[in-house]
Amino acid sequence: MPPVALTIAGSDPSGGAGIQADLKTFHQFGVYGEAVITLITVQNSTRVSRIQVLDPLLVREQIEAVIEDIPPAAAKTGALGSGEMVRAVAEAAAAFPFPLVVDPVMISKHGLPLLPEEAVRALREELLPRATLLTPNVPEAEALTGISIRSLEDVRQAACRILQMGPRAVLLKGGHLEGDAIDVLWDGATWREFPARRIETRHTHGTGCTYSAAITAGLAHGLSLCDSVARAKQFVHEAIRTAPGLGRGCGPVNHHAEVV
Questions:
Q1: Could you give the residue numbers annotated as active site?
Q2: Residue 13 burial (CB count, 10 A)
Q3: Domain extent listing, the chain
């Protein structure tokens, strides 16, 4: 049987991000994907115009239903949308016997907030301590820590502060910084860097979702955290490089890219 992975995230009807990107990525990595929907969006490659957060109790029941029948080997979270949703997922995650990757989705690629200010505190205090890995980009790390991140030294300082919030490891993604895209993994014992040449393209929609899903897939296969990140980094770089060029705005990456 194939390994199983669960995504707890929002829906992107254009297919580039959210649960759609997660499920495509799981499939590409040979993983059977389960999806619990937290919110519905009205979006395409040029805009996000509406977000409807689902009932947290309904989401909790979705999680319980899939786990009792087809338990995953790893799970991830994406857009949660409210403090109540963060708390509901955190309560469920307290009983997870499998690794959890938390992608702290706060702002859409088009600049629309996906997590209210009041929910950031719930994320920091209740969900982060449940995470095997947190995968913030630079703006998300700044929001969590209050640190202005402009250099790799700042990245390391922010990663240290985030680790103190409870996750077992943090992967701080450097795509928003100048130069090559260098991601830094810190688990409290060892620093690891994952560099990649920057690709000049506007087609990067769903990159964070795809990256965290690829890491989750690696963990579902039983790979180490470091190996899962390394494999996911290569996949995302290739997915960006071979993006299909869809949409009039920030289009999706290539979820059919080769898995190294």
A1: 173, 204, 206-209
A2: 12
A3: 4-241
